[in-house]
């Protein structure tokens, strides 16, 4: 069979239901659970998987005592299935909005540091212009939004590249920098200190982002430069909202963007400690897939991001830990273990 004939035969046999099954199998690694996820009986799901593997001419999964593990070619196929299904889902949502008289769909990934200022301003402007545009915002950390972009689950992202090779797949346009602060709750024993050093904080409980995030990498680099080890009492948390809740409920320290904690500091729920940190964190910006045209709403959104980033650079004074931080000096305190 010629290559063209084989391609046609594959297209004729594979259906989007097959792609949905592959994504479900990738998520669950269990035929029964995947069948439930796409609302088919388990025997039907098993037959569908067999049909897919027959059409492709190779096994997608190895079945062993540990369950179902993708083969090397299976990994490639599953990644394609996820991207194709995400594209179809977004197309269907966009078509439904247009059918109802709306103006399309825009799905954006964004780090939380960009959300309170730049993202919020750009979305507000876009929705003012186009009230019926369906806007969806996903993600919280750069590693999350880059993965969403790779899977084509979002149109563009506000974040950072997270490894040195991603420039091959994504274009990056820098927009702004984040001011990072070390934050504690207002009743923390350190909250009234006007002078502190990083070594004095290490024995306290910490809440930090996962090691895959740029902010956590920077935090570990700051510790290394200071000759310190990672805090022993550390909770990893990818959710900014959950981190804020943890900070408000016990005597932990966290490194967070000033834009995220600004209102909590003004409301005297949280306090910024007088320790400079994060100066070497790379700025965030617009991430898009290379060699791929953007839909018109995404192009307009990027224009608004550029405009508002310039406004913020002109109007927002640089935040400092000292300006946000404590009052009178206090005696040295020791963390409870």
From TrEMBL:
Keywords: DNA-binding, Transcription, Transcription regulation
CDD domains documented for this protein: PBP2_GbpR
Amino acid composition bias (Low complexity), ranges on this chain: 317-330
Entry-linked Pfam families: HTH_1, LysR_substrate
GO cellular component annotations of the record: cytosol
Gene3D superfamilies (UniProt xref): 3.40.190.290, Winged helix-like DNA-binding domain superfamily/Winged helix DNA-binding domain
Domain HTH lysR-type: 14-71
Molecular function terms from GO: DNA binding; DNA-binding transcription factor activity
Annotated stretches, region: Disordered: 316-337
Top-rank lineage group of the source organism: Bacteria
Similarity comment text for this entry: Belongs to the LysR transcriptional regulatory family.
Protein name in UniProt: HTH-type transcriptional regulator GbpR
Organism: Paraburkholderia solisilvae
Taxonomy of the source species: Bacteria, Pseudomonadati, Pseudomonadota, Betaproteobacteria, Burkholderiales
């Amino acid at each position: 069979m010629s290559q063209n004939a084989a391609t046609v035969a594959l297209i004729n046999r594979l259906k989007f239901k097959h792609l949905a099954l592959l994504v479900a199998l990738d998520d669950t690694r269990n035929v029964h659970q995947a069948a439930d996820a796409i609302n088919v009986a388990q025997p039907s799901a098993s037959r569908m998987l067999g049909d897919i593997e027959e059409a492709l001419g190779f096994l997608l999964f190895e079945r062993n005592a540990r369950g179902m593990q993708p083969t090397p070619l299976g990994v490639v196929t599953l990644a394609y299935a996820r991207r194709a299904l995400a594209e179809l889902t977004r197309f269907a949502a966009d078509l439904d909005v247009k059918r109802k008289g709306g103006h399309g769909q825009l799905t954006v990934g964004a780090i939380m540091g960009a959300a309170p200022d730049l993202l919020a301003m750009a979305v507000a402007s876009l929705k003012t212009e186009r009230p019926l545009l369906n806007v969806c915002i996903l993600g919280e950390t750069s590693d999350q939004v880059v993965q969403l972009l790779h899977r084509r689950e979002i149109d563009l992202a506000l974040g950072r590249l997270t490894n040195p090779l991603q420039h091959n797949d994504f274009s990056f346009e820098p927009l702004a920098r984040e001011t990072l602060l070390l934050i504690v709750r207002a009743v923390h024993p350190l909250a009234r200190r006007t002078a502190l050093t990083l070594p004095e904080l290490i024995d306290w409980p910490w809440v930090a982002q996962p090691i895959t995030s740029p902010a956590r990498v920077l935090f570990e680099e700051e510790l290394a430069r200071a000759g310190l080890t990672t805090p022993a009492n550390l909770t990893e948390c990818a959710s900014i909202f959950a981190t804020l809740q943890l900070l408000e409920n016990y005597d932990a320290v966290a490194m967070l963007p000033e834009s995220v904690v600004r209102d909590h500091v003004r409301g005297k729920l949280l306090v910024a400690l007088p320790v400079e940190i994060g100066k070497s964190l790379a700025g965030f910006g617009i991430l898009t897939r290379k060699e791929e045209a953007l839909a018109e709403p995404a192009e307009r959104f990027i224009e608004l991001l550029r405009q508002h980033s310039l406004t913020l650079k002109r109007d927002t004074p640089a935040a400092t830990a000292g300006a946000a931080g404590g009052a009178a000096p206090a005696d040295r305190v020791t963390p409870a273990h």
